[in-house]
Write a structure and sequence with these properties.
Blueprint: E1 15-17, E2 22-24, E3 27-29, E4 32-35, E5 38-40, E6 43-45, E7 52-55, E8 60-62, E9 65-66, E10 69-72, E11 75-77, E12 80-88, E13 93-95, E14 98-105, E15 110-112, E16 115-117, H1 149-156, H2 173-181
Parallel strand pairs: 1-4, 2-5, 3-6, 4-7, 5-8, 6-9, 7-10, 8-11, 9-12, 10-12, 11-13, 12-14, 13-15, 14-16
Family: Belongs to the bactofilin family.
InterPro entries: BacA/B
Protein name: Cell shape determination protein CcmA
């Protein structure tokens, strides 16, 4: 128990969501995932017992997370499933339930939800991690700071084929109509 280093290596991340990026939709990953930006959708680790997700103090996730190792120092609105280890750093804010095997909370971290010790015992005797999470769209709460109305509009819209990009910034149709009315 003491003296063991059971934490995964946190210095190598295969995938990075930068601070200027926003992802709308579910994200499946393996290996390491570091989030500095915003993800509006569910994040699910593939069958990789060493998969780790780290949400920095600038990172925002609106959706559920399912990964063996989770490190949160940003904002999460949704449930978190971690069958190995979850760490809530000093700036972590979680609005949702946490299902865990081992949890580490630093002074200053906040959880608005239930903590449920679900994944205990030997790995072969534990309940399986969710391969998919709720099919409902994430709810955008006022508690999550976001400065992008475009991401909310895109999350509410039905998926369509992606238009060819011209390098111009997309503008919501409602914004164009409002400007014409003036």
């Amino acid at each position: 128990m003491f003296g063991k280093n059971s934490k995964p290596s946190t210095h190598h991340f295969d995938t990075l969501v930068s601070g200027k990026a926003e992802i709308v939709g579910d994200l499946h990953f393996s290996g390491g995932l570091h989030i500095d930006g915003k993800v509006f959708g569910n994040i699910i680790a593939e069958d990789d017992s060493k998969a780790v997700i780290r949400i920095s103090e600038k990172g925002v996730v609106v959706g559920e997370i399912s990964a063996p190792h989770v490190i949160v120092n940003g904002q999460v609105s949704g449930d978190i499933h971690s069958c190995e280890h979850i760490e809530l750093a000093s700036r972590a804010t979680v609005n949702g339930n946490i299902f865990y095997n081992m949890i580490e909370m630093v002074m200053g971290s906040q959880v608005s939800g239930n903590l449920m010790h679900r994944y205990r015992g030997k790995p072969e005797n534990r309940p399986a991690m969710p391969k998919s999470v709720t099919h409902e769209k994430p709810v955008f709460n006022e508690g999550v700071e976001t400065d992008s109305k475009a991401a909310k509009t895109a999350a509410d819209a039905k998926p369509v084929a992606a238009p060819k990009t011209t390098g111009a910034t997309p503008v919501a149709a409602s914004a164009v109509k409002d400007k014409k009315a003036e």
